[in-house]
Design goal:
Length: 664
């Protein structure tokens, strides 16, 4: 993972770690005699530990901070995780090696241990290297556990018990290499193959007990060593305060400077600097180990503990106040189907969560009718929930990469299906597949970022309800529903929610499809109509447009919206010439009950139905139905079509036009 992070993350990590350490240690050793005179010989000799401790950052603390702020999947969050990973690993190896060597040498005149010396330092160094190699050597055994687990089945309990036994044994061996017992446990945790079946099973067994029971007790025990009521020498406070502030100031300036050199915004550079300066529970507990190892005095422990509290608070509050990842999705540019130039390429981001979504998404893409004059560019995003690891990953399969855990490949069906789709529509459709592994509450950032980066006109999302063949509800997924709601609110382009109530048959099996578009008026309906018109260009599909109008002549209407509606409808009314496979029907509606009856009547007459979401738009045709809406994300008409009371086998696409941000 470290070597795949990229040059930017490596540059930021190395400079933000090494430059403060070099400057801080140079100053400490240059003024060492003066500092010992001011703060005492023991405290003065341990000031380099303070420099090293504040120069690095803890990857688990940073991942927790980004998760709490809900920016784990943002572009800046990914960069921070990459840089933090490199910094943490390098700092851990350097600190562990330094602790091994320094604890084997006589560092002051009060140390009279006859065994200490260069010979012991060399022996301890070899023990440290052997300890790391032994820990890394456990990985093949864990991969063997994964290979022996049948696909889709949980890992055998014996294997999880063996992994925990390895962790305990490595912890004890680490003590012979002059490391804490937790060092061995940590290294074993790092070499466990992430994700299912092994990584996710270990988390399932250990997370609740470890996080909510053992961790609070452990932190409390560490906090009991900190006595903030005792008197601390003012000179020590001033010296340590200057060192801590200087180290973090240098680190922040270096980080901001590199970010500016990389053409990143100033606020992003400042946020990244705050993230790399964040301290938390891991740093706090590390201070307890340093104190127990006589690498920090009690007074230094108190000052360092308070600094961890202050820095952690500043980082969290500062990043939350400055950084808003959703601002990049602001819709100042028009990215929708309505504003596409004639015969231009339609760019689509299509999302897949489960195997059942693959067929319905392909069906929807075939409905878009890719032709040489109306080409289709599709970016298929396979979304997998992050389990068994801390950092999210995003993979482009155009680069011949694969997502795997052992011999499993969770995106293989998606890749094969849409590669075949591209082959079937060679020259008219181009497909790129991606896999995003991230927490479900942050998946919307992956979707919106891909749509923004690829200049997509519409995002197609699968609905969270799955139906059986007889029309009853089979299952629901609230995580998908919450994700769809977030995308609707933040998407940089138009959004379509695909409701699949029937079989997802290919257009090769059904060469002529009956497509319906229900039009009431408004921006969402205009967007849906433009998409519907693309389904019949150079294709044998039949499109029928139902224009539902109010029979109440006194109803208040927006003249501008009415004019735009009439302009868009001209294409299906035959103003520009008769189109054989398009039928326009104007339907007068007196009250909402007629709307319900009409929807029930036509629902089973078509294979595919396109409607607008019309969120927040009031009309006499749907006014009384809004309070009965079960799925607000589908709008009133979409909710009626998706209701279990409506008998239909049609797929339904509910379209919301890109939400434009008001210009200040």
């Amino acid at each position: 993972m470290m070597f795949r992070t990229g040059k930017k993350a490596w540059t930021i990590a190395l400079c933000s770690l090494l430059v403060p350490i070099c400057i801080g240690l140079s100053i400490c050793y240059y003024f060492l005699d003066y500092l010992k005179d001011k703060v005492g010989e023991f405290d003065g000799a341990k000031l380099p530990v303070v420099v090293v401790g504040h120069s690095g950052c803890s990857f688990p603390v940073m991942a927790s901070l980004l998760s709490d702020l809900e920016i784990l999947n943002s572009e800046l969050g990914r960069l921070a995780l990459s840089a933090g990973l490199v910094m943490d690993v390098l700092n851990s190896i350097g600190s562990g090696l330094g602790t091994t060597i320094v604890s084997s040498l006589r560092t002051d005149s009060s140390d009279h241990d006859p065994n200490k010396g260069p010979a012991l330092a060399i022996f301890s160094f070899l023990m440290f290297v052997g300890f790391l190699l032994l820990a890394i050597g456990t990985r093949p055994a864990m991969r063997w556990f994964v290979r022996k687990t049948p696909e889709g089945r949980p890992v055998n309990k014996t294997y999880t018990h063996l992994v925990m036994l390895m962790a305990f044994c490595l912890g004890l061996i680490g003590m012979f290499a002059r490391q804490s017992v937790l060092a061995g446990v940590l290294v074993v945790g790092l070499v466990v193959p992430e994700g299912p079946p092994l990584g996710s099973e270990l988390i399932k067994q250990l997370e609740l007990f470890a996080t909510w029971f053992l961790l609070p007790i452990f932190v409390t025990c560490c906090a009991m060593k900190v006595d903030i009521s005792r008197h601390i020498d003012t000179n020590l406070i001033l010296v340590m305060l200057v060192i801590i502030v200087s180290v973090h100031l240098v680190k922040m300036l270096i980080t901001i400077g590199i970010c500016r050199y990389c053409k990143m915004p100033k606020t992003d550079g400042l946020c990244l600097a705050l993230m790399l300066s964040c301290k938390g529970v891991v740093d706090f507990c590390t201070l307890g180990f340093l104190h127990d190892s006589l690498l920090l005095s009690h007074d230094q422990l108190v000052i360092m503990a308070l600094s961890v509290l202050v820095l952690g608070s500043i980082a969290g509050i500062g990043v939350k106040a400055i950084y808003d990842p959703s601002r990049k999705y602001a819709g100042y540019q028009k990215r929708n189907i309505l504003n596409l130039k004639p015969n231009s390429e339609l760019k689509v981001v299509a999302c897949v969560h489960k195997p059942s979504h693959i067929g319905s998404i392909r069906n929807a893409l075939e409905i878009c009718c890719p032709t040489s004059s109306n080409p289709l560019l599709v970016h298929v995003l396979h979304l997998i929930e992050l389990v068994g690891r801390s950092s999210p990953i995003f993979i482009s399969h155009r680069l011949q990469e694969r997502v795997s855990s052992g011999h499993f490949n969770f995106s293989e069906d998606v890749i094969v299906t849409f590669d075949l789709f591209e082959h079937d529509y060679a020259g008219t459709a181009s497909v790129s597949t991606y896999t995003a592994v991230s927490p479900s509450r942050f998946m919307h950032d992956d979707i919106c970022y891909l749509a923004l980066d690829k200049l997509a006109s519409i995002i197609i999302l699968p609905f969270h309800v799955k139906w059986t063949e007889d029309g009853s509800i089979d299952s629901t997924d609230d995580n998908i529903r919450n994700l769809n709601s977030k995308v609707l609110g933040k998407a940089p382009c138009s959004v379509g929610i695909l409701v699949s109530r029937g079989s997802s048959t290919s257009s090769y099996d059904t060469p002529t499809r009956q497509i319906a578009m229900i039009f009431l008026g408004g921006s969402d309906d205009r967007e849906a109509l433009c998409l519907a018109q693309r389904t019949i260009k150079e294709c044998s599909n039949n499109l029928k447009v139902y224009h539902l109008v109010s029979s109440n002549k006194n109803e208040q209407t927006n003249n501008w919206d009415l004019m735009l509606d009439n302009e868009v409808l001209k294409g299906v009314k035959g103003y520009y010439g008769h189109v054989e496979n398009v039928t326009y029907e104007k339907v007068a509606i007196e009250d909402p009950s007629e709307t319900t009856a009409f929807i029930s009547e036509i629902a089973n007459q078509h294979d595919f139905i396109i409607v607008g979401r019309r969120n927040g738009i009031k009309s006499s045709q749907t006014a009384a139905l809004e309070s009965w809406t079960e799925f607000p994300e589908l709008g009133v008409i979409g909710d009626l079509l998706a209701s279990s009371d409506t008998n239909t086998k049609a797929s339904i696409l509910v379209v919301q036009q890109q939400q434009q941000m008001p210009k200040s």
